[in-house]
Amino acid sequence: MGLSGAGGATLQTLRLSSSAIRHRGSPLPRRLLSTATTLIADPIGHLPRRSLHRGGPPLLCLDTAFPSPALQATTVQAEEHEAAGAATASEKPRWKAAIDFKWIRDNKDVVAANIKNRNSGADLELVLQLYEKYCSLQQVSGSKFCYLKNEAVLLEMALINWALSEVTKKGFTPLITPEIVRSSVVEKCGFQPRGQNTQVYSVEGSDQCLIGTAEIPVGGIHMDSILPDSSLPLKYVAYSHCFRTEAGAAGTATRGLYRVHQFSKLEMFIFCRPEDSDFYHEELIGIEEELFASLGLHFRTLDMASGDLGAPAYRKFDVEAWMPGLGRYGEISSASNCTDYQSRRLGIRYRPSSSEKEAVSSKRGKGNSSVPTQFVHTLNATACAVPRMIVCLLENFQQEDGSVIVPEQLRPFMGGLDIISLKLK
């Protein structure tokens, strides 16, 4: 990604030294002020609490912000991307660079003790005990696949069953979805099933694809339907395997379980009235934060910039957890409000209730004439993406002897197991 563009400042201009600014006493350049947003370069989180709430003023931290080269002004390319996708929220950051986001909040005060004396990653011998790239795996499946074994299998099942149990308590209907769908449904949900950079596996000789997320089959469950107003909101939590080509993904930052071609995931999905979608977006991110906090993870919540959104998303929050093995935060979930982007393409409408009809008809003076149907809004959020959750647990809950503490919430789903220890050979 280039760091200069139409109307954008060059990389050399943006790489200002914080010490030079302090010593010269010169004000921050107007051009930089107009393009900068909340800048985060503090992995453990020592920034003032006032920057952690939604709608707060942008924080420019001179000691940590300027060494990063990732700043970029809004470009024509970003504007075209937004025009092609869903309209974006006016109050959210509108820049394209990876660090152009609002840091909404984190839970560092709650779990500071949990990351006090952690190693750089889980003990190698223990990791090999839990999952392994067998010598035959390259011949069986290829790269970026693995076999889970021993307690890792129990951990995956425990994570799914625990998260499913917690989310269904909040009124979500559980689903197990098909994992092969038509290419047309993939496209209508806002994903590209073809092309050089596609993340979608296509089934050769057919119009079908493997799903990259349960969002796709759940989004299509009410395709070409008119829903009664009384049925909204419809809340689903869906379990599926997900398949992604991960085109272009390589390097140490994506090694191991962090980025793989096949994984298990629990996805939340909501169909609702347009006026309610912002409310349910907040509900979804609240559920995610509640789940991760109950496990004792150290995480932060981000309001993503428009340039980092996929085509369907009007607004997206990401949750990133601290991963000692990477030495940085890594994304473990997201929550997106897609407004009517998907519902228009999938043909999902709702018919307002009779009381709404009467009110509108009275205003129009048309007696009993019916009110036209409207498109629902759709929202999706990750309840549990298993591989990255396993990474977080192995790396953040390892003790000095190399064993790993099983979070209390997961123990009933693992037969009461509270410690994962290296097996004696």
UniProtKB/TrEMBL annotation:
CDD domains: SerRS_core (cd00770). The keyword Ligase applies. Residues 169-407 form the Aminoacyl-transfer RNA synthetases class-II family profile domain. It comes from the Eukaryota. One of its GO terms (cellular component) is cytoplasm. One of its GO terms (biological process) is seryl-tRNA aminoacylation. Keywords: Aminoacyl-tRNA synthetase, ATP-binding, Ligase, Nucleotide-binding, Protein biosynthesis. This is serine--tRNA ligase. It comes from Anthurium amnicola.
